[in-house]
Amino acid sequence: MEITERVDALIRPSLEDMGFDLVRVHFSGGGRAVLQVMCERPDGSMTLDECAEVSRTVSALLDVEDPIPGAYELEVSSPGIDRPLTRLGDFDRYAGHEAKVELAVAVEGRRRFRGIVKGTSGDEVVIAVENGDVALPFSQIRAAKLVLTDALIAAHAAAHPQDGGPGDGTGAGQEEE
Question: Which parts of the sequence belong to the Ribosome maturation factor RimP N-terminal domain (predicted)?
Fold first, then answer.
């Protein structure tokens, strides 16, 4: 089992007990090893105080179990507006918005797609691309992310008026690439 799977299995139950959905666990080794934990409330919200609460809980769990050899930095954040799409249900939740999808194996001669998310059909994700709709096997998606558009910003602002919109100064949801 790789590090991200071990950490996911270790922290998911506690985060769910706290009322959070775990969106992604990502570990990058190398010179500056970083463990990134993304989570949110079921309604998609996440405050700076909640990030700190999650960070303390995750730190305590990792200190006890020690699933990562060596030193690393822990980063806890919300997924942000232009969030990664990591669960099959994310593609239904964000239907109508533009996304970039990268596959492990080519479909119709391509591994990268950009288009409007139409939702899911069984275990496939349907994306409207320039030539029509394409069904992508969820199991073959290596990475998927919403594209920051005016429509996505407006939908987020309507759903979360308490956030103050992009650049609300909390730092929650910001991610480096």
Answer: 10-82
